[in-house]
Predict the structure.
Amino acid sequence: LLKLFHLEEQGDRPINRYSTGQKKKIALASALVPQAPYLLLDEPFSGGLDPAGIAALKNVLRRLAQDVQVTVVMTTPVPELIGELAHRVAILRNGRLEHYGTPEALRIGVDAQATLGDALTSLLYPEQGDAVEEYFAGEEGKA
């Protein structure tokens, strides 16, 4: 795992000498060590991961789900990651399940012509579309 996250040369350093991104990689590697059937990750792509770390984590999560049959549950504020990694999506609001299904089913349920990112944004932030329209309506009056 150290090699996967490009940390093999620093493997013996004290943790307080690592950068924020390196600490994030160590935390993720630590979560991957046990051979548990479930892996719970809270925003694993946030917090200082570099592009190589993001790519490595995506590949590991895909392989865990496909080859090792690990159920990966993760939170993410980035809808685009959902399309790349998720087989099922659950959208919770205030502790209640609001939407559940495959990424494609959720997309079609919102708008068959929408991208997955736009559909998920609409489900997650339904007021955003109105706020954008109001903003631009106000801008037209100023022009």
